[in-house]
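Researcher: I'm preparing a figure for a lab meeting and need a structural model of a single chain. I don't have an experimental structure, so a prediction will have to do for now. The sequence is pasted below. Please return the structure as tokens so I can convert it later.
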Amino acid sequence: MPTYDYRCPKGHQFEVFHGIKDRTRQKCPVCGARARKVPAGGAGLIFKGTGFYITDYRSKDYKDKAKADKSSETKSSSGDSGASGGSKKGREKP
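Model: Understood. Here is the structure written out token by token.
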């Protein structure tokens, strides 16, 4: 059963938990006035776990190749640090 939001003419808001087909008029618990149903804002949508991203469906072969590429990139980037220093030498001002 869903929860519905109601508001009375005096501005009081409250929630009622009842069935979809229940047509009984709701009364405000504070002042007793007849309340009207307030349109709901919708439910929040939360993605938890696997299966929500395109990469979750990649093949095992693809994932293995991506791991190999990442490990080779980190090895090559650690050896490049000395090579970049020499290129600035020609641009230095006297």
